[in-house]
Amino acid sequence: MVAHVGTPTPAPVPVDLPANAVELRGLTKIYQPTGKAGPKHALKGLDLAIPRGSLFGLLGPNGAGKSTLINILAGLVNKTGGTATIWGHEVTEHPRRARASIGVVPQELNMDPFFTPREMLELQAGLYGVPKRERRTDELLDAVGLADKADAHARSLSGGMKRRLMVAKAMVHTPPVLILDEPTAGVDVELRRQLWEYVRTLNRAGTTVLLTTHYLKEAEELCDTIAIINHGQVVACEPTATLLRRVDAKAMCFTLERDLTAPPPALEGFSVELPEPRRLVVRYQPSRQRAGAILSALAAAGIGIIDVTTEESDLEDIFLQLTGGAHDNTGVVHAA
Ligand code: ADP
Ligand code: MG
């Protein structure tokens, strides 16, 4: 289309874009085991709406059901019950339309070492029936910083390059929804930043992004909305800022004038630690406890203070609060 000078042509306004890019209702998955183990209830009637245009983070401990959810969207796992709708297409009713609406970067990298990045993208575009003249191979390679590797063998690419190539591969058919399962696992810090920047760029250009991650800092910095799932159910789903405000925990860290051998009795009712004889950490809940009460108690006990710092809580605290902490089904919470 040719735009005429002086007469701005507004972008066509799509009439029936869905409000939610992805909508899950009562989504259930029960894996039927082959061995002695009983059936595994991986998703338990999960409801989730991912607004169109969002950069959405799906968090949860290992085994929470994140990959199961994504694999159902990708058409790799059959759901047991409920509905999963992508861009208005229910995955069981309209599997092909649903699949055409998403690009998926799986948790495991699988690529043929004998193809070059260019060949791989061309092949993928062919699979999705993208006509030659509409292919964006060079543009995509450029966007993920692999233009100079276009004709190199995939086996000569580093782990981070392969991950970025997978993102480009997921975008060949320009899907409105991009799904990344643990995109930065094993990617070093600098490349992680590059990948984030590209994901942000795609999002700003209108792509709805759903990503799962173990790195809570990643979700905190990148995502506008975060859902936390645990044991196959949603335990929180809120804008990132709202979620962060939910943490009702702060700490004051004191440097003391003299050594203490035990936490002072005056601070009964607070959670107190004495990591060093002159270092006292007092945790409190701002909603029901006042910082002033801590200071008065210390003054009344005759404990001199040289310095004090405070610590705000972050996503990790909320995550631990909502998922039952390190004693749940994960064992470990990684913070980047
Ligand atoms: P996450 O990606 O959040 O770590 P998964 O979706 O991989 O979680 O797993 C959710 C639960 O389902 C776990 O208890 C896992 O052991 C189980 N599970 C995943 N895949 C299978 C499978 N193919 N067969 C049986 N159980 C499975
Ligand atoms: Mg997983």
From TrEMBL:
Every ABC transporter domain range: 22-256
GO molecular function, one term: ATP hydrolysis activity
Highest taxon of the lineage: Bacteria
Pfam families: ABC_tran (PF00005)
Keywords: ATP-binding, Nodulation, Nucleotide-binding, Transport
Family: Belongs to the ABC transporter superfamily.
Protein name, per record: ABC transporter ATP-binding protein
